Amino acid sequence: MADEAEDLSPEQTEKLIQFQDLTGIDDITRCRTTLERHNWDIEVAVQDTFNEQEGNPNVYDEPPPQEPRAPSMNLEPTDQRVFTVQPRSPQGIVQWSYYILTFPFRFLYSTLLDIFRFAVQFLRVDPRRNVTDPVGDVTRFISLYNDKYGARHPVFYQGSYSQALNDAKQELKFLLVYLHGKDHQDSDGFCRNTLGNEDFIRFVDTSMLFWACDTNSPEGYRVSQALRENRYPFLALIVLRQSRMTVVARIEGPIEPGDLINRLEVLMSDNESSLVAARADREERNFNQSLRQQQDEAYLESLRVDQEKERKKREEKEQELRELERLKRMKEEHQNMLQERENRKDELRQEIPAEPDDSDPDAIRVVLKLPHGTRIERRFRKTESLKYLYYFTFCHEDCPDDFHIVTNFPRKTLPCEPTSENPEPISFEKFGLGKNEMLFVQDNEA
Questions:
Q1: Do residues 200 and 257 make contact, with C-beta atoms less than 8 angstroms apart?
Q2: Mean pLDDT of the 59-82 span
């Protein structure tokens, strides 16, 4: 199992296990092959496997609709009953005289007909061996039968022999097969008197499926080769028994409708138990399949819930990781910003000119009051740019990052911050500051 599943996805492995449980197939390689053939559609694969076990048409590689695959057959069971009905012997002098007088002609006709057929078969391949249109063979026979004998007969199954077998198996019904030999002397009487009998018609239509075909057609000849009838008229009773369609009886010869009904009733009664067992087996199988389906649905629902929980946990975990990553990135950006700010302050400190002495006539003493109340002071030369006041303030550790400097009265904002439009602000003197000034630093973000 490990070798088979090592290259499968978790979903495929789960389907493989489910398929094995549903079908009871021990060979894991066969299970995988079946699922791969059906593109891992477990429902279709299971149904196809059940159909194959029952002899129904294959879902994946289905034969043409006109000729489905026939179910498995048991043509000669050990308890098969064979009834051979001999023609009624002539009665009286008139019938015996007619029989004796016509015997040479009948013997000569049948002998010549047999010789002709043998010569035709010897000289060329029998065209009946090539079945190209089985349904057409049946419908043509039904049409010719109605033209010759009338529409009073049991309902003919209008489909091929294989279709009739499959329907009888699916519906758990008896199937009565009639092979028509149009050249046989007893066929006309059997069709008119027995198949046209109202009691027989009612009995067949209410009890079974009825399929018939002419043995001179390819479809009829194929069925004739399978059932191997000895004489005409020929009837075969077929029923599902032990999972196979079984020929439980053969009736050969010109039987009367009453006798035929009685024999069929006895045969059906003797074999009804097989249909009862098949129905019980099918109901049990359907129940087990329904139970398995419910269990599978419950399992899949539980699996779906677990997968949904796992998905949510995974998403929450991923969200936590993303949040941690975001916080980490923000911290790094903040640290980088602080580092860049410190680097910038170091650069600006280097640009600020040296503080002049108090005795310097150009010296200006500036006292700055920071937003938190801290006071700082420094001397500048009145000819220096106001930007150095900005640099000095910015480099102080208690100064906010974004600020502006204002006078007290009259209230004015010093244009001391260098910008791209004004990279070199005016000097202290030009702004009008005196020898001693009290200025205020205001936080722009406050």
A1: yes
A2: 72
pLDDT tens for each residue of 383-409: 999 999 999 999 988 888 889 999 988
> 244-252 and 73-74 as β-strands: parallel, antiparallel, unpaired?
parallel
Nearest to residue 210, comparing CAs of 283, 260, 266?
260
- Asked if residue 399 lies in contact with residue 441, where contact means CB atoms within 8 angstroms, the answer is yes
Q: Which of 66, 212, 210 is nearest to 131 (CA)?
A: 66
pLDDT at 215: 92
